[in-house]
């Protein structure tokens, strides 16, 4: 997404076109594919599982033996992207070894030129979407390296930055477009927090205009798409221009808000999605958040980071064209990664305690706010996105792994997790439009039950639990004030 921004600002550790990967890491005479600038509409979804990332980073397939000995004799040469992609689908190496020319992502181009980009921000762990997203708000995945159905049903129990903010006397709000993925946390299912969830389309712009944004704001994107409402999370095969449109909409609402001079807006991706990066992933001095060891077969120690991801920081307190490189502490090995978000929130709001050993270690990025007065020349509007996909949304497509997890999350909210269709039969052969109908219906049932529970005088710590519901398919139907975070799916 941002590699070719180096052509705009040489200080950015991006790409020059000299970067390459061999088609076979075991064959010295193998053809090498050089990184190009031909990305447009991305259709295949490259591998980004734990095993796939291991091969991308270390240049050899994952095995139990290689995984247990990586600390002694493996270095992250970042040479296995092309080979791993070809093992999934012939020709996919061309997809993972290309990036977007800046003019094709004009919203990001403008933001990188006008504000700050961090060129050394890594995923918290070398694996899929959901475990990495958990780090954004709780600095741990509680041992998850993949989807964990048991934890999904029960809700992940770790403390979150949302609770820390509440304990400190500050407010938070989650603006969702489909049922919020933050409900993977058990605590956020409590009645006391239900009013912290807001429909993005109904409330976000109004709250911006009225100056009523909470102190810590999370904006979730549309993870599914229909013919009427396209997905905007940048996950293949969704239209990248819709993601650009979404970022533009959020920025312009924030820019027009009376709270603008109090805002630090962060755009981040949860993981690299299987696409090439030349910067080696950190493998030394990374602390396990809570000393939980991941499940077999990987038995991951949570002691190395994932691949670099795009990170853009936006505020009138940031000088134009700022590039934030590696972290300067608090430890010699500290890096910017997703736990940097709760770590920075804790520092800005002077909160009582860290969530885990990981956010205590992660670099904080308030250092990017270098001005003594806020700028008055920040753009009011951003450029219009460039169309990159022919044709409209494809609502009959099969679900990605994260989309399946969101459907299964919805099933825990409406009671369907008690049926024999849960977890796998529920999502088997389900299309995007079916998923949208299902998750919207399930979330509505959950909200209705929350309202009924309130009316019955249930305690604020109560988590509504619904009985078995309906069949699978349903009817269609800053500095001290604002910290805003947008997490993009990849």
Automatic annotation (TrEMBL):
One Pfam assignment: Phosphoesterase
Domain of life: Eukaryota
Disordered: annotated span: 1-41
GO terms, biological process: phospholipid catabolic process
Protein name: Non-specific phospholipase C3
PANTHER family per record: NON-SPECIFIC PHOSPHOLIPASE C4-RELATED
Keyword annotations from UniProtKB, A to Z: Hydrolase
Compositionally biased region (Low complexity): 18-31
Recorded GO MF terms: phosphoric ester hydrolase activity
InterPro entries assigned: Alkaline_phosphatase_core_sf (IPR017850), Phosphoesterase (IPR007312)
Family the UniProt entry places it in: Belongs to the bacterial phospholipase C family.
């Amino acid at each position: 997404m941002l590699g070719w921004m180096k052509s705009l600002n040489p200080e950015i550790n991006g790409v020059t076109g000299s970067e390459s990967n061999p088609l076979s890491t075991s064959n010295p005479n193998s053809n090498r594919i050089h990184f190009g600038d031909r990305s447009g509409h991305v259709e295949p979804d490259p591998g980004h599982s734990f095993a796939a990332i291991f091969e991308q980073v270390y240049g050899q397939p994952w095995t139990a033996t290689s995984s247990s000995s990586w600390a002694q004799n493996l270095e992250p040469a970042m040479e296995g992207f092309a080979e791993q992609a070809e093992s999934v689908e012939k020709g996919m190496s061309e997809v993972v070894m290309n990036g977007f020319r800046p003019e094709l992502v004009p919203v990001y181009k403008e933001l990188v030129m006008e504000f700050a980009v961090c060129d050394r921000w890594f995923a918290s762990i070398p694996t899929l979407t959901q475990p990495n997203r958990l780090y954004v708000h709780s600095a741990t995945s509680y041992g998850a390296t993949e989807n964990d159905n048991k934890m999904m049903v029960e809700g992940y129990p770790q403390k979150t930055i949302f609770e820390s903010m509440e304990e400190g006397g500050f407010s938070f709000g989650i603006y969702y477009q489909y049922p919020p993925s933050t409900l993977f946390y058990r605590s956020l299912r409590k009645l006391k927090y239900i009013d912290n969830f807001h429909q993005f389309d109904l409330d976000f712009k109004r709250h911006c205009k009225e100056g009523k944004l909470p102190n810590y704001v999370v904006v979730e994107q549309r993870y599914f798409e229909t013919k009427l409402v396209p997905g905007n999370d940048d996950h293949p095969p969704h239209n990248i221009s819709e993601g650009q449109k979404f970022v533009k909409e959020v920025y312009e609402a924030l820019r027009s808000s009376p709270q603008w001079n109090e805002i630090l807006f962060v755009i981040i991706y949860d993981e690299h999605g299987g696409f090439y990066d030349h910067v080696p992933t950190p493998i030394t001095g990374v602390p396990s958040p809570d000393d939980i060891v991941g499940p077999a077969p990987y038995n991951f120690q949570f002691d190395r980071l994932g691949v670099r991801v795009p990170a853009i920081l936006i505020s009138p307190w940031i000088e134009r064209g700022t590039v934030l490189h590696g972290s300067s502490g608090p430890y010699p090995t500290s890096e910017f990664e997703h736990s940097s978000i709760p770590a920075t929130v804790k520092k800005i709001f002077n909160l009582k305690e860290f969530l885990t050993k990981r956010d205590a270690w992660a670099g904080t990025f308030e250092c990017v706010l270098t001005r003594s007065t806020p700028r008055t020349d920040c753009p009011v509007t951003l450029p219009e996105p460039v169309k990159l996909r022919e044709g409209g949304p494809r609502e009959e497509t099969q679900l990605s792994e994260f989309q399946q997890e969101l459907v299964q999350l919805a099933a825990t909210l409406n009671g369907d997790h008690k049926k024999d269709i849960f977890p796998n039969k529920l999502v088997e052969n389900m299309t995007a439009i079916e998923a949208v109908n299902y998750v919207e219906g399930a979330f509505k049932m959950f909200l209705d039950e929350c309202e009924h529970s309130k009316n019955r005088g249930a305690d604020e710590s109560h988590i509504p639990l619904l009985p078995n519901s309906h069949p699978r398919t349903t009817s269609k139907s800053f500095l001290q004030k604002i910290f805003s975070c947008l997490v993009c799916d990849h």
